[in-house]
From TrEMBL:
Coiled-coil segments on the chain, per record: none
Domain named MYND-type: residues: 288-324
Pfam families for this protein: zf-MYND
Protein name from the UniProt record: MYND-type domain-containing protein
Keyword Zinc: yes
Species this chain originates from: Mycena belliarum
Length: 477
């Protein structure tokens, strides 16, 4: 993942003291923080928005309790920092790990804290080919902003453990932080031990004022990293810091400045995109299309969409009506799918595979093992798939699932969704009638008789229904 230069510019980590900004020497005494509650239970719309920034797209009108949504956010953040890789058992005792800077061969903290997956790496590469240096705009996605900020903090570490201040553009909230030390979990994973303080009062607290003063008003002023962070980004960052603060042993007491006695001790790990299994786990809606509660009935007209009760069905009718009209009386064909052909094994590279954690290498090692069914990220809600017949007439290279011989004899076709959380094949040999029912429609109506987009409903671990006579508009993926 790129570290946006604007983040590094706003994180002024040079050897000079602060020149401007609300935490600058000349404006220190006039800084005010307007009241804004950060901490505790967030409003459900805020939680849903933050989950969405991480790729967890729950229905906006979900009836899941606030506590469950809050729990999902906490668990998603733990998954994003790959917590179980670093802390298989609690607590984490940083004193048992060496200093990151002890090993001179270690890469800079900025580089080591980067995390991205194959999908993001591809996006970055394609953007560079088009002359776009920064494909990820700042301040549009809170989760991406947190990842950028962590790299800015890593840059501050490389510059000499500078004190750090994060604040939103409107100066309504700020977090004072300092990295005490950087520990090495492994060559790819630094652990940043930090102290932090966030003020909820209407003005900068005396403790924070004293802390800032010790750095900017001394005879030898210290450089300070001043990082812009939106309110939503601060929500996520504070959640991370508070969750991790509870994972340190009481006996761990690193040296801190006299002005930091009221600060909270915590740690930060590299944060990256959620893996495919995490996306599936936190997105799954196996029930009502509106709220996710157990579905007890189906739309009587189309029979495709499921609801928990009449109230949810009535609430969804305005948006469902156009699809319902097109699905009414539609013909659906059940299919049984597989991950690979009998006697072979498939190596799948997922866009969710993490580059820094060698996920691709691990896939190579596990390729010959029997794999379970793909996670159901759609529940019982209809979704769009692409059906692609394996044929020698297809343009471009064969899909990795297809052997040369299979591509020539048309013995299978591929079904996948936009995110590739479902990426499977249907074999003619498993049921010729099922296979032909779908393949004949694609050959008759699909692009070059090879591929087309279809509505689908996941009906089981290894089964799916494909709509044969009602088709979505052509998708740009």
């Amino acid at each position: 993942m790129l570290c946006h230069p604007q983040k590094l510019i706003s994180a002024d980590c040079g050897s000079h003291h602060i020149r401007s900004g609300p935490f600058g020497k000349s404006k220190l005494s006039s800084l005010n923080l307007s009241p804004f509650v950060i901490g505790g239970m967030l409003p459900r719309d805020e939680i849903l928005g933050l989950l969405s920034s991480m790729g967890v797209e729950l229905p906006r009108k979900t009836k899941l309790p606030d506590a469950e949504l809050d729990k999902r956010l906490s668990k998603a953040l733990d998954s994003a920092q790959y917590l179980t890789r670093v802390i298989p058992t609690l607590p984490l005792d940083p004193s048992s790990y060496p200093s990151w800077f002890r090993d001179k061969s270690n890469k800079p903290v900025l580089d080591a804290i980067r995390r991205h997956n194959i999908g993001e790496a591809t996006m970055i590469y394609e953007s560079k080919m088009k002359g776009i240096d920064n494909p990820v705009p700042l301040y549009t996605n809170a989760f991406m902003d947190v990842r950028q900020t962590l790299m800015s903090i890593g840059n501050a570490c490389d510059s000499g453990m500078n004190p750090i201040v994060l604040q939103d553009p409107g100066q309504s909230s700020g977090i004072c932080m300092r990295v005490l030390e950087v520990k090495q979990f492994d060559a790819q994973t630094p652990i940043l031990i930090v102290v932090f303080r966030h003020d909820l009062a209407g003005a900068l607290s005396p403790a924070s004022f004293q802390w800032l003063s010790s750095y900017v008003t001394s005879d030898t002023p210290t450089a300070m990293a001043n990082i812009t962070a939106t309110m939503q980004e601060q929500h996520l960052l504070l959640r991370l810091l508070r969750q991790n603060s509870k994972r340190l042993p009481v006996s761990y007491k690193p040296k801190r400045a006299a002005t930091e006695t009221s600060f909270t001790l915590s740690f930060l790990l590299p944060v990256g995109p959620l893996g495919a299994q995490d996306v599936a786990k936190y997105n799954t809606n196996n029930g009502c299309a509106v709220c996710g509660d157990p579905a007890k009935q189906k739309c009587s007209r189309c029979g495709a969409v499921r609801y928990c009760d009449a109230a949810c069905q009535k609430e969804d009718w305005k948006s469902h009506r156009p699809l319902c009209a097109s699905w009414q009386g539609a013909k659906w064909q059940g299919l049984t799918f597989a991950l690979e052909q009998p006697g072979t094994y498939a190596l799948r590279f997922s866009r969710y595979d993490n580059v820094q954690h060698d996920d691709v290498q691990k896939r190579l090692e596990r390729a010959k093992e029997k794999q379970g069914p793909p996670a159901n990220t759609h529940g019982m809600t209809p979704f769009i798939v692409k059906v692609q017949i394996n044929s020698s007439q297809a343009h471009g290279p064969a899909h990795p699932l297809f052997s040369t011989s299979a591509r020539d004899n048309g013995s299978n076709f591929l079904i996948y969704d936009q995110r590739r959380t479902l990426d499977v094949m249907v074999l003619r040999a498993s049921d010729a009638a099922q296979f032909s029912a779908v393949a004949d429609v694609v050959r008759a109506k699909g692009e070059r008789g090879l591929k087309m987009f279809c509505w689908a409903i996941r009906t089981g671990e290894w089964t799916i229904d494909i709509c044969l006579d009602r088709h979505p508009e052509w998708q740009m993926w």
